[in-house]
Amino acid sequence: MELSIGWLYPKLMSTYGDRGNVICVQRRCQWRNIGVSIIPLDREADSAQFSKVDIIVGGGAQDRQQEIVMRDLQGAKAAAFRNKIESGTPGVFTCGSPQLLGRYYEPALGQRIEGLGLLDLVSKHPGIEANRCIGNVVFEITATPLAKELQALWDEDPIIIGFENHGGRTYLDSVQPLGKVIVGYGNNGEDKTEGAFYHNAIATYSHGPLLSKNPFITDWLIKTALQIKYQKEINLSKLDDSVAIAGRKAMLQRLELSQLIVTK
Ligand code: GLN
Fold first, then answer.
1. What domain range is 84 assigned to?
2. Mutate to test the pocket of ligand 1, among 21, 65, 66 (most ligand atoms within 8 A of CB)
3. What is the pLDDT of residues 98-107, one digit of tens each?
4. Ligand 1, from 18, 63, 64: best to mutate by most atoms within 8 Å of Cβ?
5. What's the chain look like in SS3?
6. Is the whole model's pTM more than 0.85, yes or no?
7. For the chain, how many structural domains are there in total?
């Protein structure tokens, strides 16, 4: 079996270390002898490349780079990308990426950037004087059917441990939130929502260590992609996650959330 990971604009959208997410998917495939290739979905890519990927990973960027990306992500490329998301290709989109998947993003300076309108949400930066939302974040995934599917993979409530760093605030309309904030800002620091979930696209403000700290999301992406590609039930072999589990315990202790630690 093999999978292609489409990596959205690696040069323009890797400001915040989100390539860690690409590496996690790649490694967890390789450890199971699943062949994996990485396809950059950037200015040089054409719509055929967008159409052939099995998993999509998109990272964060600065406002200026987001504008350049949106000038490029138009026409046949945008249509191919939209078609992928609408037909259930799994993906993880962080911070600047979901801002572009939404209806629009108003940057700190300059004109509103029109998004793809795939996610029914808007994002607004309150201006360069406003505080950025920075720090560790913990949230529980509540989106359906994702929460149940993750529980089946990990055997406990899907508590996400991450790190956020954004100026923009996101407000959801009809799209369902990814989860509920326990510690941190989440989408806007006001309504306790974090991220969004649409078909199999995970949108979140939690940056590039996301998949290493929460390996069950990585496995959900791989399992979902394989099931779609090979049209059969896939059960992934277990991996040794003891380091990730120890890291999760340490973070929950540091954030005084020991009650969320599950002994495995
Ligand atoms: N430029 C956007 C913001 O500040 C996105 C930042 C990011 O991707 N971390 O909200």
1. 2-260
2. 66
3. 999 999 999 9
4. 63
5. CEEEEEEECCCCCCCCCCHHHHHHHHHHHHCCCCEEEEEEECCCCCHHHHHCCCEEEECCCCHHHHHHHHHHCCHHHHHHHHHHHHCCCCEEEECHHHHHHCCEEECCCCCCEECCCCCCEEEECCCCCCCCEEEEEEEEECCCCHHHHHHHHHCCCCEEEEEEEECCEEEECCCECCEEEEECCCCCCCCCEECEEECCEEEECECCCHHHHCHHHHHHHHHHHHHHHHCCCCCCCCCCCHHHHHHHHHHHHHCCCHHHCCCC
6. yes
7. 1
